[in-house]
Amino acid sequence: MSLKPIPAKQLIRILSKTGFTPARQRGSHIILRHEDGRIIVVPVHEGEDIGVGLLSKIIKEAGLTREAFIKLRNPT
């Protein structure tokens, strides 16, 4: 299964399942922090989805595989 664009709020919910919590916000970017110190910046623009390229980068920064991310996105 391949990656598809995803709304930023849904991405933040998925990342929160893996231990990331919103630390702060600067403009339209929410900074998420993991308890081990990792930081991820997610742009939140109303009406726009996170594209596949940026999504791949965020997944990699979060230490997830594509398969693990897809399972978190579609728990069945």
Describe this structure as you would to a colleague.
This protein has 76 residues and is α+β, with helices and mostly antiparallel strands. The chain has a single domain (6-73), classed as Hypothetical protein (Metal Transport, Frataxin, Chain A, 2-Layer Sandwich). 37% of the residues lie in helices and 29% in strands. The protein contains 3 helices and 5 strands, in the order βαββββαα. The chain has helices at 8-17, 52-61, 66-73; strands at 6-7, 20-26, 29-34, 39-43, 49-50. A 3-stranded antiparallel sheet has the order 2-3-4, with helices on one face. Strands 1-5 form a two-stranded antiparallel ribbon. It is globular, with a radius of gyration of 12 Å. The protein starts with 5 loop residues before the first strand and ends with a helix. The mean pLDDT is 94.
CATH H-tier superfamily: Hypothetical protein
Mind telling me the CATH class?
Answer: Alpha Beta
Q: How many domains would you count in the coordinates?
A: 1
- Shape, per Cα inertia axes: globular
CATH topology term: Metal Transport, Frataxin, Chain A
Summarize model confidence as the mean pLDDT: 94
User: Beta fraction of the residues?
Assistant: 25-35%
Helix content: 25-40%
Number of alpha- plus pi-helical segments: 3
Short description:
The protein contains 3 helices and 5 strands; from the N terminus they run E-H-E-E-E-E-H-H. The longest helix has 10 residues, at 8-17. The chain has one domain (6-73): Hypothetical protein (Metal Transport, Frataxin, Chain A).
